Model the fold of this input.
Amino acid sequence: MAFFSEKRKIFLFFILFFLIIAGLANSSVFVFASITNGTIDSTYKYAWADEIGWINFGASGGSVQITDSAFTGYAWSENYGWINLNPSTSGVANNGEGTLSGYAWGENVGWINFSGVTINSEGQFTGAATGDVVGTINFNCSGCEVKTDWRPVSLRGGGGLPSGAYSAPVSLPLFPFSILINNGATVTNSQIVTLGFNAGEDVKRIAISNAADFKDAVQEDYQPTKKWDLCGKQEEICKNIVFPQTGLSLRVYVKLYTQYGQASEIISSSIVLDNQAPVVEITGIKPSYRTDEDIILSGNCEPNSTITLYWAGKYGLSYADAQGKLRVNLGKLSSGTHQLRLTPEDAVGNIGETIIINLTIGTAPTPLLPSALRAIDRLKTVFKPFIPKIFQPATPEPKIIVTVPEKAPLSLKGEWEILFQKQLEAFVLEPLPTEIRALVQKFPQLERTFEKVGIAKITDVNKLKDVKITLPGLTEVAGFSEMEIESGKFILPKGISIARLTAQAKAKIPTEIVFAKGGGGLIDYNITLSLTEQGKLEQVITTIVGHSLELVVKPDKPVEKIKGYLVFKSKKIESISSNFSLESLTASLIFSDPNLAQPQDTPLEFENKLVLVDFEYTDPDKDGVYTANITTPMVDGEYEIITVMYYEDKTEGPKAIRMITVVDPEGYVYEKNGGKETRINGAIVSLYWLNTETKQYELWPAKEYSQENPQITDIRGIYSFLVPEGDYYLTVIAPGYFVYEGKLFQVKEGSGVHINIELKTKYWWLKIIDWKIIVIIAVVSLLIFNFYLDIKRNKIKISKGYK
Amino acid sequence: MFNQRTITIAAIVFIVGILLIASQCYVFWQKLKTAESLLQTCQHNEEVLDFTKLFIGKVLMAETDVSFEDRLKLENAVRDISSQEIFSQWQKFTESKTEVQAQEEVKNLLELLVSKISY
Done:
């Protein structure tokens, strides 16, 4: 034990010794650098005194420290020795924001006044201290710079600093720090530009400079955009430099800061400043032209410039090419002298001086060419299309430029209203179409929704493209939205059959609207409104093949009969341009054209449609509510239910209500066989629902809705349920397969459950073995057996040979 | 040096190769033609839209007379479309003598411009 104790002592001694040596080697004592108790940067530590030379504020042994209240330690002058920053009778104080005051003392330099020295948010000393002996001590001059890691209190925030206080600004995840000049333009003709910054939320301040060393830059509050002078603080560049004709590239540098003063890396961007006006020069001009020849001029200008020409009371435009070459064809002019003015404008918008040229047009007629030359000219014209391009003149004659008269024509004078103001106003302020207004009247909920969404005029109808509206179900519109719960017994959310509706409830049913119910009249179908490409509202319901559908309609006037037609529309279910949802409802309905009952010319024309079923609505109890029961088609697709009301009043024509019915296929149970699916016969599909009273999942009581649960699949493997709103899940049991237990799903409105379910077989390996595999195994086995026999035979021969 | 069979095989390989390359060339040529046609359509649409944009911005939205610079731009843009129909309609508009006529010609011009956009 004594040995270990001795060893431990020696060990501790060495540790202590090491720490002391390390501390002394560094700065005699431990100094913990931080933004609250700072030290001087090991690189930037020299200030310049004009009388005594360099003063080192980070000298070894000087132990200079900057706290929120004081600047302490010793600075070192090579010629004058130590300067005490915290003498007993005075000392340099810090007001916490980096403004220094008070006096330092040196044996050989006397008192030095630090008023006028500040430490900025980057920890850099600025300004100057003064003394009788030292003169002026500059902290921020060419080559002299003193920096610390201490930061002003206001930049640090109060209390403990968060972890991000020491981190540089963070850029946005997808966009690194960037700066855009004039929104990414490459060239400008103004030295005042707009800077746009892309920075993270932690950026609070910014420093911008036209110089890479941020000379004369100041920190300012961060703004995402800022007007900036490309020549600011470097006027000498912009004034004295000779700008090339194509401009000069100027760069802007930016540093971003967090609220704690932590700086980002320097980012920069450049733009070409082209403020030089273009100069146009005409080099190719004849002393005089004839009246029967085109006036063609050539010259030079800044590349891609536009030259505006004015002559003979009209204006024309011409362009210099990428090489700055210019060729203009003014066409023919009458005899005399014409003044031509050319004003160049470069691509950036600098406008050059206008030059004036006098064109002399002579009256001399075209001299007649000798007949031989005329023939050659004619041949040239004939053969011109057949001459290869390489043999054609390099610069073809320019086309005659387009001109406009000096004065604008009447239609372009801006004095006329060339748009039909009244018609436009009438269109924009046109109220909603009649059918939509009627619909709104029948469903107050819809009115509220339209108010919220801001649909009031015909031009607002387009907004319906972006919303989904589900109309309330029959049960709700009849005033039975609240569920009646008997004491101790929970009732599934469901609609009420028409037969059970009171006369009062029936009176509330909107007229001329077809509602749809399923599940023995207990499930209200969900009806959505969609906007067709033609801007018409259309009602759509979605159901499943082979299910019963009860249609309910209440005519607005006494009817003789109501006929219904189930018409095939298309096999391919068209995507509805938009749907919109009103509110979450217990049930919903199939709804057909709201008022949406449209006058119908008799006879109804179905020539282009396949009528699958025609049926008649009946009203046995004479309550004015007509119903019809149909079965949805056995083939999935898009259908239309057309309900036609024939009124007793013969003067009233029949009205038709149309409703799109999307029939989805039933769900099926299958297993995968390679890339194919095999339907499973005899699978038991059970649907469970969440009983909200017991908080338990229970077998869904399908009998109440005239359905079966569980369902046993036939050879097609199909099943389907039409259910009211609630939380459900499916299970499937089939012999030879693992039990399937589906994920929970929610049904918001009455709709079909028809998910395709894949089962996994228990005996998957049996699938691999078929007759081909068996044959291959047999052949390989026989080969191996043959080899075995050969080897055995050889061994016997060898053993017999030995004998 | 080479026997008859070798030469025959080489010749067959050569001919088959040529045929393959020719068929590929034909396919590429067809694709090129389609691409060129698409490009022309796009360029035409762009020209129509350029003019339409100018027309709306400089004429329909103008509150004073249209400057000669803008008129020149419009005249150049309408000629760039290379459609005699549009050009004629534009001229009908600019040469309108009455406000009602100008309104009518504007409608016709806008309808024509929209109908000339292919997609």
About this structure: The radius of gyration of chain B is 27 Å. Residues 58 and 70 of chain B are 7 Å apart (CA to CA). Chain B has one domain: 4-115.
